[in-house]
From TrEMBL:
<dbReference type="InterPro" id="IPR038144">
    <property type="entry name" value="IPI"/>
</dbReference>
<protein>
    <submittedName>
        <fullName>Proteinase inhibitor</fullName>
    </submittedName>
</protein>
<dbReference type="InterPro" id="IPR020481">
    <property type="entry name" value="Intracell_prot_inh_BsuPI"/>
</dbReference>
<dbReference type="Pfam" id="PF12690">
    <property type="entry name" value="BsuPI"/>
</dbReference>
<feature type="domain" description="Intracellular proteinase inhibitor BsuPI">
    <location>
        <begin position="40"/>
        <end position="134"/>
    </location>
</feature>
Length: 151
């Protein structure tokens, strides 16, 4: 009975998520009084795939506590020159619906990766990443974007 109560509670809490609106698209860092927390993304083309290396860096002198409402740590979207969505990290995936916390200590880096296994035709693309961790210590969500070329 206790297990069932916990499962029901987790499902209820997980259903009380965010509405998906996260502010300006080009914001890449959040200011803290004595520095900043920065999200970066670096696309790396490899044979048959594109790897996206992401990092959240705490350039402050204080720990930053992030809360997640699910197992999804980031959202990543690739668009072509015409603005058409070509890839979305979360498409077709399911994530646990449970609150999680993570502390990023001063000067610490949290690395993430994703692999797009279908290399598109040559051309210019843009990758936009949003870190899904929320914190009261930053004014807005961490975002990063980068234009890259597929050869």
């Amino acid at each position: 009975m206790r297990l069932i109560s916990m499962i029901v509670m987790l499902l209820f809490v997980g259903g009380c998520g965010q509405n998906g609106e996260y502010g300006p698209d080009k914001e890449v860092s959040g200011e803290v009084e004595n520095g900043s927390v920065v999200l970066t993304v670096e696309p790396v083309q490899k044979p048959g795939e594109i790897e996206f290396k992401m990092s959240v860096v705490n350039n402050t002198d204080e720990a930053v506590d992030f809360e997640f409402s699910s197992g999804q740590k980031f959202e990543l979207v690739v668009t072509d020159q015409e603005g058409n969505e070509r890839y979305r990290y979360s498409k077709g995936k399911m994530f646990t619906q449970a609150f999680q916390t993570m502390t990023l200590n001063p000067k610490e880096t949290y690395d993430l990766t994703d692999v797009w296994k279908e290399v598109p035709e040559p051309g210019q693309y843009e990758v936009n990443v949003m870190f899904k961790g929320r914190t009261e210590q930053l004014a807005s969500a961490l975002r990063a974007s980068k234009t890259f070329e597929v050869k």
